Amino acid sequence: MDLSTALRAERLVAIIRGRDAEASFRTVMTLAEEGIPLVEVSLVGRDALTVLRRARAELGDAAWLGAGTVLTASDARRAAEAGANLVVTPGLGEGLAESVRQGLPTLAGVLTPSEVIAADALGVSALKLFPASVGGPGYLRALRAPFPELPFVPVGGVDAAAAGAYFAAGAVAVGVGAPLIGDAADGGDLDALRRRAADFRAACAL
Description:
The protein is α/β, with parallel strands linked by helices. It has ten helices and eight strands.
């Protein structure tokens, strides 16, 4: 399954930015257990590459395991070496270009029509509308008018209540950080994470 197909099937990308590497790893594993297989571990989190390596070893080669906040070509190479098979960027730049050169599935950060055109020309897998909260579902709907076939994934300020509005506006999936993860990646309650995961799975159900 390619990334675009996986996004349409799962409709949810979990975003982890943890201050505790062990807790971040447990968060990845809990999400997988709760049926959320598309997970991004942001490189700004504590020991993110170690978290990626451990999660890859546990989840196997087929799991979708992403590196987020990839900014530089070095970031992209280190993420691939750690086992990431998905790269997520906040915008355009060398990190995105290197990921495409390596043939990694990419979720490229865009906000404007010009950025959409540039990212699509690179051959990215999907487009991360970031920060989606700038314009909300209405902006996504307007942006899709000239790009109706491209897969958009709103990220930033998306909670369970907003997810439906983004899907109605044409999103193929949503990316969710704090509203889903809470404090789990900092050592918080994993049972609470499981409850939030169930809520988001329901909100993103086909």
